[in-house]
Structures are given as structure tokens and as C-alpha cells.
Amino acid sequence: MFGSVLNKLRKSIRRRGALGTVRHAAARLARPLLALAPAERRMRRQKAERDRAFDERYGVDTGGVIPLDQLRIEGTTWEQGVPYWGIDPDEFARLLAALPVRPEEFTFVDYGSGKGRAVLLAAGQPFRTIVGVEFAPELDRVARENLRTYRGEVKCRDIELVCGDALEFELPQRPVVCYFYNPFEGEIMSRVVARIADSHRAAPRDIYVLYANPRHREVWDRSGYFEAVTVTGDFAVYRTVRTGSDG
Ligand SMILES: C[S@@+](CC[C@H](N)C(=O)[O-])C[C@H]1O[C@@H](n2cnc3c(N)ncnc32)[C@H](O)[C@@H]1O
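That is the input. Now the predicted structure with S-adenosylmethionine docked in place:
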């Protein structure tokens, strides 16, 4: 027990430095206290009500907030992952409305698909195909069951759920919309952005990015590979930078 704590501490210091480790530990200790604040409690209650309404209406289980340290996930990437939390359907609709493409021509990829709420909502659009990538097997299993029981409108039936790390996911070599609902911290996001840029270099095509709750926009802004199409307080839409040869 003591050995495993010491191990975690060593790993954290290697990754975050001593000061970063103190900050990280303080943030984790403060979490339960913040949860007691009235505004936070009100927000959680409202979210729980909306989750329940969605799940009852569509015959699924997509609600709740699930910290990743309560799940069994291989490797250590999860330490920089964000808890499961399904996107609000109205927020998702606003995001899709800002996407300047015909869904029929695109594959929609959800990086960190969790219980599959966004995958189900995306299926209401005529995307060519849809892929959800989730590294927590327990969440992936719930998403698969949700696909089976969902009672909402479905215009795209070609849906694949991949249980694996976003860092290892190979983007299909077709026009894609990459969707992120703030799934991970900046370091993982940088590596994912680099992979998407590599995939585009290997097979130039239209790649759009829908980034909801965009905590690490700077990673996309600095990549030199993507340009912002729309930015609001709640989301950002990017696409690969057009060059003269794109026509
Ligand atoms: C905020 S939830 C978003 C859920 C869903 N995309 C939606 O919009 O409703 C973030 C999800 O990303 C997953 N995640 C975090 N890091 C990941 C990684 N490296 N690879 C795959 N999934 C990851 C978490 O397990 C969690 O389910």
C-alpha cells in the first residue's frame, strides 16, 4: 500500500515536477469541498434532472459524472483524462449547427465517447459513418448497450465503438469530423493533435474539429495545422489549414 503510494508520487513528480504535484494533490483534495458549494450543488442537481429526462425518454443510461479513478483503465493516460460526463443535447445541437459541412460526406469520430451520448446524438444526422473511441471498458460496455436500446431518431446506422486509448486510434482515411468534449488535459491533446496532423499529411482530406468546453484551445491554435472556423465561449470549430493547392 505504502509502496504503491510512493510509486504514484514518484511518477507524478517525474511528470509534473514537485510544485505541480503539490498543486495536483491540492486540487484533488479540494474537489469534495467544492462539491459542497451551493452553486455547484445546484448545477449538479440540474444536470441530474436533465440526465434523467434524456435517459427515460430514449431508453438509455448516459447520465452521471464518473471520475476515472473509479474505473479500471489500462496504462496511465487516465491520470490526464477528464471524468465521464455526457454532453447536454442542446449544446451538442448548437455545436453541430456550426459545422459547415454536409454530414453525408463525413465520418464523425468521438474522442472519449464514454457511455455514448454524443454518438447517439450524432446518429440523428446522416453522417456517412460514426466511430466512438473510449478507453474505459466499463463505459464502452454501457455505450454498446445504449446503441441497442436507443429510441431516438437514427439517420446513420454505420456506428462502430472502439474500446481503446485515443492516443492509439488511427483516424479513417476519409473526410472526418473529430469531436472532443474536453476529454483530456493539454499534454494528451497535443499528442492527439499531432497524430491527426500526421494522418492528414499521409492522406490529405477535409478534417474538421468540433471542440466543446475547449479548455486547451491553445494546442490547436499553436499547431499551425488547423485554423479556427468558429469560436464561442462554449466551443470551437477548426479545420485543417487550406493551402493554395487545396483549390
Ligand atoms: C467529458 S466525457 C465525454 C463523453 C462523450 N464524448 C460526450 O460528449 O457525451 C470524456 C470521456 O473521455 C474519456 N477519455 C479520457 N481520456 C481518454 C483517452 N486517452 N482515450 C479514450 N478515452 C478517453 C473518458 O473516459 C470520458 O468517458
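The radius of gyration is 19 Å.
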